[in-house]
């Protein structure tokens, strides 16, 4: 008796353009499905489709981004929301979080979809089928690796800690309990090594490839603290000759490029203006819509954090500043309004509009006139005033539009692909990460100069000064520099949460944002805190009581 796969989503691969188009098909038997390479490809594309979802904002990658990014220190929410993403942001985790539940369900849909193909394809029959088999091994590895990051503790906190169930068959009776962190890493590496050996065709950044498997292996080994292997796989990608860093000018517009136009993109979950976000309100539900309001579309409620802004503003020429767009207030003539601002001891913003007379900048506060002074510190101009409580450093600029007192520093990295308002193809791996993986692995082995050499490749591309061993800021070491650069370069690409905790560091959230509201606010989250990982969705434990809940 033939089994049926019901309503498996599929995407047609357009050979000449390498674009992806959504195209659901009806019921198809397993026997028919694996009768020829085209049917196998259709089924594989169905697994890719689950990454982005039916509408471009309801798939696996959307929830993964929010789970990964909102719990970091690069974002600042300006108000409350009934969406369960609020609990991801403020660490007040709940066991019924709809975002986490959907991520869990979509993850296993992808894994089982891959399992069906892995079980049926006979390895070695053709280059084409081996390629597709490898792509499914890659997708399964990617899924379990990210699930392990979300629900399992960092590798260096104990390999016997529980991670996620590894379902490696398509059988509905196969319902494993949670595997350990070690077991998940072992399976992910096994799948990626298999994928690497099988894939010989590079179809562009919208599809898995040998280099995509190598790039993810570099990250997996970095997270595992196998630094020699992390560097080895980073070097494989770097020396492949298939990728190169965008120029500084191109990089400042990276968010507008489709993955196949981006020469440093290794693998991305690809969305297209021709097939995605076609509904009238779709631009209000994307990742980018929460970061910015563009042409009147988008909530624009979560902004760049003050600590991220402080870091990127150290170098005014940094090309990565192009992904942050402050929203200035205007006077009656539509001119910017000069102002100074700072963050007070309660971690809220203070803005004061300023006046200029004879080269002297002043502002009035409660009937007192204060003069804005300046001095040069480490070659940079620092502004301050002497107030009733002593010296207060300030940022001298313009007044900004605000929401609930929070200045609007829009994040554009997840918007404007193909000049479509909130279209974006989330990046899984790109070449810049490989240099940073390599730098971190070198720094952790005491090879400081080589680590800086790789950091400087990224800094030079960003258009900012390079580091030498002699000019590292006081109180910092080379690993600090690497992790800072990683934060700057990979911001809003879903890395920061894991980079902090896997390195045994605390998440510092001492900056303005509604995460500080309430009586149990988290100003700092140590890497050993229970909420470093998410709860297993309660509904899953009801369905399978043998699953053990996270603390």
TrEMBL record:
Main location: membrane
All copies of domain SusD-like N-terminal, residue ranges: 89-222
Superkingdom: Bacteria
SUPFAM superfamilies reported in the protein's UniProt record: TPR-like
GO cellular component: cell outer membrane
Domain RagB/SusD residue range list: 264-520
Keyword NADP attributed: no
Keywords, in A-Z order: Cell outer membrane, Membrane, Signal
Locations listed in the record: Cell outer membrane
Lyase found in the keyword field: no
Homology family: Belongs to the SusD family.
The protein's name in its UniProt record: Carbohydrate-binding protein SusD
Protein species of origin: Aquimarina atlantica
